Structures are given as C-alpha cells and as structure tokens.
Automatic annotation (TrEMBL):
GO molecular function: heparin binding; lipase binding; low-density lipoprotein particle receptor binding; receptor antagonist activity; very-low-density lipoprotein particle receptor binding
Annotated GO biological process: negative regulation of receptor internalization; negative regulation of very-low-density lipoprotein particle clearance
Keywords: Coiled coil, Signal
UniProt KW Signal keyword: yes
Boundaries of every Alpha-2-macroglobulin RAP C-terminal domain copy: 134-347
Cellular compartments per GO CC: cis-Golgi network; endoplasmic reticulum-Golgi intermediate compartment; endosome; plasma membrane; rough endoplasmic reticulum lumen
Protein name per UniProt: Low density lipoprotein receptor-related protein associated protein 1
Source organism: Xiphophorus couchianus
Residues in coiled coil: 248-275
C-alpha cells in the first residue's frame, strides 16, 4: 500500500492540480462528458484544456498551451506502445513524461499553487514594460539597456536581439519550474522508508539533476552569446535569426559533428526557421483578429460579429496546428543532434 501511495505521489509532482488530473483514467477517449468530441485522446489532457478555456489566457498563449498538450499526447501514446512492447523497464521515459506534464501545469499556472516566478509575456506586451525592467532579470535588463543605447544595432537588429533576450528569459522560467519540481520530489524522497523504493527514487532524482545541469549549461551558453552580441554586434556571417534555431545550431556546433553532417543540418535548420517565422506571423494575425473581434462585439452588429468570429476561429485552429508542427520539428531536430553527438563521442 505504501509503495502505491509513493508512486502516486511521484506522479503528482507539482501539487493539487496535478493530482486532480492524475486521478482520471488516462486511456484514449473519444468524447467528453457532454457527448462532444474530445480535443485530446487522453483524459487528463482534456481536463487541462477545459480548465484553460475558462482562464484568462491570451489567444496566443492558449494556442501555445494547445500545442504543448498535443506534444504531450503524442509522447504519452508512444510511451504506451513502448510499455506494451516491454520497453522502458526502468521507468525513465515514464518519469520524463510526468516531469513534462508537471512543467506544462506550472508554465500555464495550473499547478494549484501561486507561482511567484516571473511569467512569460507575449510580444505585444513587451513594449509596455518599464525601461530597465523588461526581462525580470537584473543581468538581462542591464545587458539589454547597454545594447539598446550602444548605437551598434539597426531597428531590425534590435528586434532580433530582443527576441533572443525574450527567449532566454523564457528558458530561465522553464529552468525555475524544473528546479521547483525537483525540490518537491526530493521532499517526497525524504519520506521513503523501503530501501527498494529509495533506490528507484534515487535513480529518478539523479535523472532530474542531470537534466537541471544540462539546462543550466545551456543557459550559460545562451547568456554568453547574448553578452558577445551586445558588446560586438551581430557578425556579418550570422547564419540564423530566430532564437530557437540559433539555440539548435549552437548545440550542433558543440556536438562534435562532421563537416558534412553540419552542412546537412544547417540546410534543415533553414527550413525550420522558415516554419518558425511563419508561425510568428500567424500568432500576430491571431492577436490582431482577437482585438478586432472584441471591437466588433462592442458595436453589436450580429452579422459582422459572426464573420469575424469565423475568421478568428480559423486563425486560432491554424495557429495551433502550426505550433504543434513547429514544436514537433524542434523536438525531432534536438533528438537528432543529441543522437549524432553521442555517436561521435562513443567512437
């Protein structure tokens, strides 16, 4: 009985809301309680989504959540197949899935606790932040203000640099969420009595600490890059513009890949960057469409409202779909870089 309780506690990870979702049977489901077609094939993900629709999330942020849940759904369904085939015997993949789900709950404020960490902001709100306090981090704010007043950057370059700073801020937020999750799991670990249970949890904790170290290393690399660009400006031979793509490219250059592998990956990353930029465009259009819909609703023209609602719904669906495809592509690229780097290190 104690073993079952402790395993359940590990699944909770991030508090009350995680517990609420994890009580549900997480088998594929075709409809919700009202007989409508369910958005996701896993019950707990539908519960998260239904709660999110009642929250005051911006359209862009809601679309981002939908994409994250679709990635989680894909990974969990793949894991179920692995489990049937007798794979993941040590539970590493299962632990990773729990951790990812907990991160999603915390990221969107659904972990049942008041989150004192600085939350992400969408790009349309960035200009409202006070000078010197844009990124909620003293080092980032100081670096950004120096770069902005240096005269080394054109307006277009400043926008690109601003996106890199925002991306780094988001990575810091994700790191803080993961660190909080590890701290909570360690508290559960302290209450373990059985040596067998202790060994299992110790292994999972070591995994989480390894992931934390990797993320901290990536944060350090990212900050060093921001500092270099802020002091020296963008180099003429800059290969990419989008922060996510730059992060992958920098990781690839550190992965000990051959020249041919790097060239092949560079071409693939250019295609990925086009996808990222297209997604950004749809996010901007979605936000503008939402603003227009609110304006039209205030005027009370029923026919006009209907047309704008249909346009908004179409844009929302397209943005979610593109967000999922982009995140899946990024996941595939990241795994590819890790595998190739590991192969070279083993040679």
């Amino acid at each position: 009985m104690r073993l079952q309780c402790l395993v359940a506690a590990l699944w909770l990870g991030v508090g009350v809301m995680a517990g609420k979702y994890s009580r549900e049977v997480n088998e594929p489901t075709q409809s919700d309680g009202g007989g409508q077609t369910a958005e996701f094939r896993i019950a707990k993900l539908n519960q998260v989504w239904e709660k999110a629709k009642r929250m005051q999330l911006t359209p862009v942020r809601q679309a981002e959540l939908h994409s994250d849940l679709k990635i989680q759904e894909k990974d969990e369904l793949q894991w179920k197949k692995m489990k049937v085939e007798g794979l993941d015997e040590n539970g590493e993949k299962e632990a990773q899935l729990r951790r990812n789900f907990n991160v999603i709950l915390a990221k969107y404020g659904m972990d049942g606790k008041r989150d004192m960490r600085p939350m992400e902001t969408n790009s349309l709100k960035d200009h409202e932040a006070k000078d010197g306090d844009m990124f909620d981090d003293p080092k980032l704010d100081k670096l950004w203000n120096k770069a902005k007043s240096s005269g080394k950057f054109s307006n277009e370059e400043l926008q690109s640099l601003k996106r890199e700073f925002q991306h780094h801020k988001d990575k810091i937020h994700e790191y803080n969420i993961l660190m909080d999750t590890v701290s909570r799991t360690e508290e559960i670990h302290k209450n373990v009595i059985s040596p067998m249970e202790g060994d299992t949890k110790e292994h999972l904790l070591q995994q989480k600490h390894t992931e934390l170290k990797e993320k901290m290393r990536d944060l350090n690399h990212g900050f060093q890059r921001l500092r270099k660009i802020s002091h020296e400006g963008f180099s003429q031979d800059s290969v990419f513009r989008e922060p996510r793509v730059i992060e992958l490219w920098e990781a690839a250059k550190r992965a000990n890949l051959s020249k041919d592998e790097l060239e092949s990956l560079k071409e693939e990353l250019h295609h990925f960057e086009t996808k990222v930029e297209k997604h950004h465009h749809y996010q901007e259009q979605l936000e503008l469409s939402h603003q227009k819909l609110r304006h039209v609703e205030s005027l009370g023209d029923t026919e006009h409202i209907k047309r704008n609602q249909e346009k908004y719904n179409t844009l929302s669906e397209k943005t979610r779909e593109m967000g999922y495809k982009m995140k899946k592509h990024m996941q595939d690229l990241s795994n590819k870089i890790s595998r190739q780097g590991l192969q070279h290190n083993e040679l």
